[in-house]
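lol ok so funny story. i was supposed to be doing the assay writeup but got distracted and ended up predicting the structure for this chain instead. priorities right. anyway since i did it might as well share w the group, maybe its usefull for someone
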Amino acid sequence: MHDAAIAAWDVKRQSDTARPITLVRVLAARQALPDEAGVTEERGGKLLARSFNPAGGFSWRDPADWIPYQTAVFVSPAFPGFVSGHSTFSRAAASVLTDLTGSGFFPGGLYEMTAAPGFIRSDSSTNDSPVRLQWATYADAADQAGQSRIWGGIHIEPDDLAGRRIGHEVGLDAVALARRYFTGQAP
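and the output, tada:
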């Protein structure tokens, strides 16, 4: 995990990229927000963005006031978005577990958990019934950890996908190095 942290933060400091909240607001200020079905909509000559509504659900709002799907007190991280640390760490762990156990699958072939009502924190009752999550492989669980940051408006897809790739390589490298130590072949 330490190697994954070094890799992710090295990329973050080299790229210095914006988060979705900044991207949406800056593009709106420049009047350059793309017109995309389900994401933006023109009403009365004004382009609106689909946004999380803290009172519940989603609504169309001025992109200059766009907010991610988070609680009202959430502050988007003040460090670069590219790459996603969640994706990097999760995929590194999945690669290590896959290599060490000899299988990419969870024991028994499936891991399942149920999030109780209220488990998902938001300002409204969006999680008023149980949510069942299932993963067949460690990579499935890792990918969903990274995707959750997209769904929450913290990252964009390239942050997630690059983080997965980096994490996978770091995990494999870490296991290979550990094996060299365990077999006495490390310098």
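DSSP finds five helices and five strands in the chain. The first strand starts at residue 40 and ends at 43.
back to the writeup now i swear
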